[in-house]
Amino acid sequence: MDFSYVRRLMLGFMLTTMFLSMWISNTATTAMMVPIVEAVMLELKSSAERTTSDSGSLLNLDALHKTLLLSIAYSANCGGTGTVTGTSPNMILKGFLEEHYPESSELTFATWMAYNIPGMFICVCIGWLVLQVIYVPCWHKQDEESKRKIRSVISARYDELGSITFHEAAVFFFFVVLVFLWIFREPKFMSGWADLFSSDTRKGDAVPVMAILFLLFLCPAEPWRIRESPALLKWSAVQSKLPWGLVLLMGGGFAVAQGTQKSGLTTWLGAQMTQLSFLSPPVLQFLLCAITAGLTEIISNSTVATILLPVVNQMAITFHIHPLYLMLPVASSYAFMLPVAPTP
Question: Which residues cross the membrane (predicted)?
Answer without folding.
Answer: 117-140, 161-184, 204-221, 242-260, 283-312, 324-341
